[in-house]
Amino acid sequence: MQSQDVAQRPAPPSPAGPVVDVEQAEAALVEHYPRLVRLAYLVLPPGLGRSRRVLTAHALTQRALPRNRTPAPVIPAQSTGRDGDPGYALVRLQVLRTALEAGLPLKARAWPKRSQLPPLLPHVWGLKLFPRSGGADELALDQRLSSLSGPARAAYALRGLERLTADGVCKVLAAAGVADPEGAVLEADGIPAQYGLLDSPEFDPCSLQARPTDLMRRRQHLRAALAAGAALLVCGALLGLPGEGWGPEGAAAPPYARNPAAQAALDPAKLTRVPPTAWRSSARTDFSVWPARGDRTSDQALLRRALAVWARPGETVQVSATPGTLSGGPAGPPQLLYAGTVDAARVVILYDGLRIARYAEPKDGTQGAALDFARVDGAGRAEAGAVVLGRSDGNVRYLVAPWVKKAGERDLMKPGSGTMDLTLTDGVTAPLASPALRSGPCTSWNVLHVTDGGRTRLLTDLGELVPARLTAGRPGSPGEVSGAAALRTWQPFACSLGTVRSAGVRSVNAWAFNEQPLPDASGSGAWVCTRAETWRGGGARVLAQFHTPGGTYGAVAAKAENVPSCGVRDPHVLAGVLWKSKAGDWYLLAAGSRETASIRATGGVDGRSRSSLLTVPAEQGAQAQLKGTLKDGRSLRGLR
Predict the structure, then answer these.
(1) Which region holds residue 546: left if phi is over 0, alpha if psi is between -120 and 50, else beta?
(2) Could you report the per-residue pLDDT of 21-30, keeping only the tens digit for each?
(3) Backbone angles phi and psi of 278, in degrees to 5
(4) Which residues have CB under 8 Å from 315's CB, separation 6+?
(5) CA 416-417-421 angle, 5° bins
(6) Cα–Cα distance between 163 and 555 in angstroms, integer?
(7) In angstroms, what is the C-alpha Rg of the chain?
(8) Phi, then psi, of 575 in degrees rounded to 5
(9) How many CA atoms lie within 13 A of 23 on its CB side?
(10) What does the alpha-carbon distance between residue 198 and residue 155 come to, in Å, rounded to a whole number?
């Protein structure tokens, strides 16, 4: 376990330094608060989840303030800016010590320490907070850090954030109670020293994104609080009545309010069930014409629990929703898409016209129930091709649309490997490897290949309820990823899909907007723009990537969010990258879409071309600003 390197005994005394007043410690804590919180966030166990890690990091940092005058430890403060500040050394040591204690197993002590329990404060009621997502490099570093022990993460953070030497890190870890500081430093040295990434928003608990919690549930709780006295009297009677209370509805919370519309939405007998052949004659081909499938479509008790938990999820229910998706109960009786047993769980899939809801409970009971939501308004035949039934053991199972007659699995990074057929049983696929569950280096990206009346489509699991559709081609008229050319376009850029996981992505298009001869005559590099569109409309993410001959992966040259570039409204894009030849010479390579008439580079590199391509000698690390002109006279700025 990660706690094996942390001493279970009290921390060894460190040499006493100057006595620090509470006011001096407070001044140091307030001045360096963002850095201390970032240090705590990096050291805390990744298993806590991003939202809880944020709150715990702030709580531990705020509790680092001593209650009275305290001797400061004689340990290094930092190589820049804080040398000789005993107040900073004191609060940093306390932050580090409590963050390491938070990773200790609860069973190791008779009574848990305060740092091992969820923080009561700080807390923002009604909001879930988590840091902004970074790029592929930050994601890879976060995965590597999660594999380290707590002391090793602390050593890496002290080296990267505090700029301490190995000896200084050992002294700080020893003062924090680590049994083997040298071992922690050696373990931390086992991963690449990408210390600059620690300053990115991915690891910044002070620059956060906010998402709402269950809005309907909060409203119900407010009403319940106003009627608390009456509810106490009524609940006792409700629990004693047959067919009432918590028992028959599994993990659902108590029914605080009842009305005819809400009661209709909770009645399994009123669920909408579509005939199996309705999709053949319907003007619509989306989730509204999916029939009810599965071996438990007649299990009234299971359906009742699923509807009740959707309307009133209890405290033990794990609720998740894609960005921009409300998680409140249905306005009326929803449509049943699936009810059956999937691996070790009983699963119910419901559709209310705007959202897909997935309820899952273990086969051996209702404890540990989960409720997932995905926004699907405006879905067409292409987007309504499959829904995730469950994930386990690194695999994912899908329920495919009734018009899908054949399904397979293929590796997007191996376009010539072909498709491996998947068995379909009542619309349920055999398990296939999920890239959303993989950890470690990206060496493959398996996608779902579905056949719909002779037309093929690729869908990829991005960790959400509805897989994202993959396309290739010019924005405004993209095609399916079916031919050899489209598959080759996606091959080097498949792993970049990991940067848009859990972002509510509807589709991702790859467009090869230009090709550039390399200045050392070693071939041509491909410029590709990938754009991830979301179900909510906003939040589209754009990557301009460059791939050289023989390379396994493409390099991200520029990225942006909420911009029209590379999309239907503005298909044009301009990006540049510093490239090193085999002879060791550096160049600025820039390219725009083929409608670009000229490109100008200024700043660290100066150059100009009267075409859609620019090649200019440059120095390593040079930075340049790009500006282009389209053939119709409009200006075009570099993607950022």
Answers:
(1) beta
(2) 888 888 888 8
(3) -60, -35
(4) 253
(5) 130
(6) 29
(7) 28
(8) -155, 160
(9) 0
(10) 13
d(CA 305, CA 264): 14
Two structure tokens written together for 175: 């003062």
Contact (CB, 8 A) for 606 and 582? no
Nearest to 512 by CA among 533, 534, 496, 489: 489
In the chain, how long is the greatest CA-to-CA distance? Answer: 84
18, 75 contact by CB (below 8 A): no
CB environment 542-573: b (16+ within 10 A), e (fewer):
bbbbbbbeeeebbbbbbbbeebebbbeeebbb
Question: Does the pLDDT of residue 219 top 80, yes or no?
Answer: no
Q: What are phi and psi of 191, to 5 degrees?
A: -115, 155
Structure tokens at 396: 């994912």
Write out the H or E segment, with its range, that includes residue 169: helix 166-175
Give the pLDDT score at 265: 81
- pLDDT by residue (tens digit) across 548-595? 998 999 999 999 999 999 999 999 999 999 999 999 999 999 999 999
DSSP letter string, 359-427: EEEETT-STT-EEEEEE-TT--TTTTSEEEEEEETTEEEEEEPTT--EEEEEETT-TTS--EEE-EETT
Query: Does 505 have pLDDT greater than 70?
Result: yes
Are residues 473 and 483 in contact, defined by beta-carbon separation less than 8 angstroms?
no
- The secondary structure of residue 284, as a DSSP letter, is -
Tell me if the bond preceding 519 is cis, omega within 30° of 0: no
- Three-class DSSP category at 293: strand
- Give 338's strand partners: 293, 349
- Phi then psi dihedrals of residue 580, to 5 deg: -110, 125
Q: What gap in Å lies between CA 88 and CA 99, rounded to an integer?
A: 16
Q: pTM of the prediction?
A: 0.62
The CA distance from 406 to 423, in Å, is: 8
Considering only CA atoms, which of 41, 43, 42, 201 is closest in space to residue 137?
Answer: 201
**Tokens of residue 428, six digits:** 């349920």
Q: 225-240: per-residue pLDDT in tens?
A: 676 656 566 555 545 4
Q: What is the DSSP letter of 7?
A: -
Residue 398 φ then ψ, to 5°: -115, 150
* Residue 628 pLDDT greater than 80, yes or no: yes
- 3-class SS at 373? strand
Which amino acid is residue 382, in one-letter code?
A: A
**pLDDT tens digits, one per residue of 415-468:** 999 899 999 999 999 999 999 888 888 999 999 999 988 889 999 999 999 999
